[in-house]
Request: fold
Amino acid sequence: MDGSVWVGLAGTLVGTAVGGGLSIWASVVAQNRQAKATRDFRIEEKAEAAVEEMIIQLYVIKQRARDLPQDNRGFGAWDQELSQLAAQVEPTVLRIRDKELRERIEEVLGYMGMTHELTDYLVHGGSLLLPWTVCSYGLECLGAAVRGEPLPEPTEPIRKARVIDAHIREQRGIERAEAER
Reply:
């Protein structure tokens, strides 16, 4: 065999090796992209499922918040039940990907842990229906997220709950300062 045959054969082998290497590399890259897309899709599915589950759970809390006790003896159990329902839902909130939505729902659930204050601080806007209307705001936020709409502005009940919460925090700070003296 003369040199040109060897050169041709070597060129063919090098070309085949380079082509095969590039083909393998392209396959690996495509496979990695597909795996990432599949992971992202699963994460998004879980986040959407969390929002849908949160809607159902917050609706249950809202219904229970509307079932006001008929006498003062039942108020403590009602208050405790709302707090427990909100606490049970907290792990679901962690799966909500949208930070602003997650924070708003955490705020609503936090207020369910202080229904006694929301209903007693009448001077600061508290009322027996405030826990129910706060839950309604949470549901509005979740509904907007599911529909892909911007989150609604804070409603009057949320602003009232914030005022009550700030008042309570201020009182506790004063009590702590007095206790430290």
The chain has one domain: 47-180. The mean pLDDT is 85. The chain has six helices and no strands.
